[in-house]
Amino acid sequence: MAKDLTNGKPLKVILLFALPMIIGNIFQQLYNIVDTAVVGKYVSDTALAGVGSTASMVFLIVQVAMGASVGCSVVISQLYGAKKLSDTKSATYTTMLSMGAMGLFFTVVGTLLLDPILSMLSTPADIYDIAREYLQIYFYSCIPMLLYNGIASAFNALGESKLPLFFLIFSSLVNVGLDLLFVISFDMGVAGVAWATFIAQTLACLLSFSVLVVRIRKIQGEGKAKIFDKVIFKKMVTIAFPSMLQQSVISIGHIFVQSLVNSYGAAVIAGFTAASKVESLLTSTFVNIGNALSSYTAQNIGCHKTERIKEGFNISLVMIFALSVVMILVSLFLPEQLLSIFVNADASAEVIAVGKQYINIVGFTYVFAGIMVIANGVLRGAGDVKIVVICSLCNIIVRVGGAYLFAGIWGSAAIWWAVPMGWLVGTIISSVRYSRGKWKTKGIF
Q1: Residue 320: which H helix or E strand, with range?
Q2: Domains identified in the chain, total number
Q3: Which phi and psi angles does 432 have, rounded to 5°?
Q4: 1 in a domain, yes or no?
Q5: What is the rounded CA–CA span in Å between residue 71 and residue 298?
Q6: Is CB count within 10 Å lower at the N or C end of the chain?
Q7: Is residue 4 one of the residues assigned to a domain?
Q8: Which of 11, 9, 6 is nearest to 319 (CA)?
Q9: Residues 107 and 139: beta-carbon distance below 8 Å
């Protein structure tokens, strides 16, 4: 089941390992694209704004899940790289239990604090009911969503990136079908999109859980694996907590940004929501390369092949530059076509103008985000997570600070300009840390 990332040409190894992740992310984006497009095209701009006004809270949950998954993935990867197979199995079981428990926590707390959350987000009165309905159903999906993230991170940590892809393709297609059925045929509006996501994620979670349990049992270790290992869990927390803190702070920063966006009204919210989806679509490949590099780094540092890690970083850097050129061209020449995916032909001129302005400003600076992501991928895989936290903190502080500081001068455009400002600062921090090489001594096993 598991794939060894410590041998073979780095370009081939990273590319072949990242490719299923990239394809999987396309289908993951399909979730967001179809959800947003169905709401924007078949419900209304107001409904799109209602869903978009909750985006920062959804982002918070997803990012915390990803931060927790990082801790699990790094530990599993390094254990596997060190050939400690029984501990690898214990770490996988521990991952599933802890991620499921975290999902339950978010469901309970989110449901109890639903109205205070919407108030904190400065949700406009004309879209409040729509936002509340969507977010309530979304909280129900936290358990399958977090558990699936943990399962996918376990598969990826073991070098098996194809199986999560198959489950994600299946789940995405189910989501698309249910979106269209619930919204167009049953006229369920925003609730239809939310329930479609819940059902699709639950199915993906159940299927992937079943396969992982069967596959992990086939790994022959030197002793009996534990269902929950306290020592390994503490190791995971050691890695995951800084990453979760990092993602939480980033997400809180996004909440402040979303609150500022919401203060400009429904049209700006709708335009920002559509443009953000475009940004996510374009930059998703960066994230996948960074995740692949993280698993690659973790396995190679587990067997002390630091020079091989450098080769992998340089190859990834070339891929980032090539992708950035494509993204600049797309942002320059096709912004309206990209926005048309998420808004209908009758969308107001203000919605289109806001989205186009965002894409034009941010599109030329994607290279900063890409460099930051792959440098952090090496640092994270090596276990050097503190500097990744600092990088992310500075990134979001600059972004939030810049948005609020210049909003009185540039209006909503200040929010868009603050994005590349934050990326640039984060890129400098992570690149300097990587070049100094202290990450080479951070292996945890």
Answers
A1: helix 306-333
A2: 1
A3: -65, -45
A4: no
A5: 11
A6: N
A7: no
A8: 11
A9: yes
Q: Residue 421 — φ and ψ, nearest 5°?
A: -60, -45
Cβ neighbors of 5 (< 8 A, separation 6 or more) are 13, 17, 159, 295, 296, 299, 300
What is residue 109's predicted lDDT score, i.e. its pLDDT? Answer: 92
Q: Are 80 and 135 in contact (CB under 8 A)?
A: no
One-letter identity of residue 71: G
pTM to 2 decimal places = 0.67
Domain extent, residue 82, equals: 10-441
Q: Which residue carries 């984060």 as its tokens?
A: 426
Does the residue 3 lie in any domain?
no
The C-alpha torsion from 400 through 102 and 445 to 285, rounded to 10°, is: -50
Of 434, 436, 416, 226, nearest to 331 (Cα)? 416
What's the confidence (pLDDT) of residue 1?
43
The DSSP letter of residue 223 is S
Select from 54, 22, 39, 59 the least CA-distant residue to 196: 39
Neighbours of 136 (CB within 10 A): 15
> Is 26 among the domain residues?
yes
Residue found under tokens 């299927």: 207
The residue among 373, 363, 362 whose CA lies nearest residue 429 is 373
User: pLDDT tens digit string along 375-432?
Assistant: 998 888 887 778 888 888 898 899 999 999 999 888 889 999 999 999 999 999 999 9
Q: Choose between 222 and 289: higher pLDDT.
A: 289
Per the CB < 8 A criterion, the answer to whether 355 and 261 are in contact is no
